[in-house]
Amino acid sequence: MGRGPVPGDVEPLTWAWMQEGRRFTAAEYMETIATMHSLGRRMAAFLENYDLLLTATLARPPLKLGELDMTSDDVERYVAFLFDEFAPLTPLFNQTGGAAMSVPLVLGARWPSHRGAVWGRTRR
Fold this sequence. Notes:
Layout: H1 12-21, H2 26-47, E1 52-56, H3 75-86, H4 90-96, E2 99-105, E3 114-120
Antiparallel strand pairs: 1-3, 2-3
């Protein structure tokens, strides 16, 4: 494109999150990566005692198309919703490199097509 990104290139929330990320130094970024690697090692050690761990993928029924407001610029609210209210367990495995898959489950009329997550050992 020959230019850097501008606010109109992406949704307001994406732009706000990018601006939030720019506040952190390289040292803070590396500290975060080290924390994620440490969590990955702890999860791998925990899973050495189990063949698999079955958890919910989501903490509530799936979102309807358009339900997630990307026009807001409230990063804190978005992160709280996504990681605390909607999918609190998924980020742990996404960030720590755990072997995982999401599988369909049927939990009755309330959540007719919910998904479960199966987490497994990374190696033996």
